[in-house]
Design a protein that fits this description.
By secondary structure, this protein is an alpha+beta fold. It contains 7 helices and 6 strands, in the order ααβββαβββαααα.
């Protein structure tokens, strides 16, 4: 039986090391942390000039931009694609990777976002983030100039997408649970603040809520901040 060339062995070892690294580091319950780890892994693997990660919002049937290699803090959570829309949406709906070596913006499926300069880059590789339950998101890597994606590169990035699917799904569930908990706590806080206003101002429940909303808008404060201030003043009145 012929021996495997040393160069091939080194390549396989490097790929195994990368996969082991992915399994070790991508385990946080904070979604933003998980996604940034994936961005770094995708960059290390492909040497891409740009990395974007879209996360699936199944109730809305869309993909939401949640992480990027280059700074786009003002656009994260703001850019969305419907399932099937653009190359990214096509990958999510058809469950197939897409690799374009040059002229990506000329592809008939391409959707241009003028606020993203990376959309003018030549090469585009898009793969699924997938868990046992289905599509969780999409990883996009782009090269400013033409780049021929090797079969190994495509397979490795697709494998990364499968490895991290469970971690992304868990982080999403954690984020949703936290959001529900915060919403419940806010509701309780506002209810208490309404009670204070109803007693002090002798207004109805609806009128008390409108007063809280008005204070929030006029002073650019959140409902939570206004409710906490009302309860704090009530406590100080009781103590005086």
């Amino acid at each position: 039986m012929p021996r495997m060339p040393a160069e091939k062995i080194q390549t396989l070892q490097a790929e195994l090391d990368l996969l082991y690294h992915v399994a070790q580091v991508v385990h946080s319950y904070d979604l933003d942390d998980v996604l940034q780890e994936i961005v770094q892994v995708a960059e290390d693997l492909t040497q891409a000039d740009s990395v974007f990660i879209y996360v699936a919002d199944m109730p809305a049937n869309e993909l939401v931009l949640r992480a990027s290699k280059n700074p786009h803090s003002g656009l994260l959570r703001q850019i969305t694609l419907k399932m099937g829309e653009g190359i990214t949406g096509w990958v999510a709906s058809e469950k197939e990777p897409v690799a374009i070596s040059k002229g990506a913006s000329k592809d008939s499926r391409f959707r241009l976002f003028r606020r993203l300069p990376e959309d003018r880059y030549e090469a585009f590789l898009s793969v699924l983030i997938i868990s046992k339950r289905g599509v969780v998101g999409v990883i996009n890597v782009q090269h400013e100039h033409g780049h021929q994606h090797s079969e190994s590169e495509i397979k490795m990035l697709a494998t990364v997408g499968k490895l991290v699917g469970g971690a992304v799904e868990n982080a999403l569930l954690s984020e949703e649970t936290l959001a529900l908990k915060e919403a419940l706590e806010l509701r309780k806080l506002v209810e208490k603040a309404k009670g204070v206003l109803m007693k002090k101002r002798r207004v109805t429940e609806d009128e008390a809520y409108k007063l809280i909303q008005k204070e929030s808008m006029n002073n650019r404060k959140t409902l939570k901040e206004v409710a906490e201030a009302i309860l704090l003043l009530e406590t100080l009145d009781l103590d005086s």
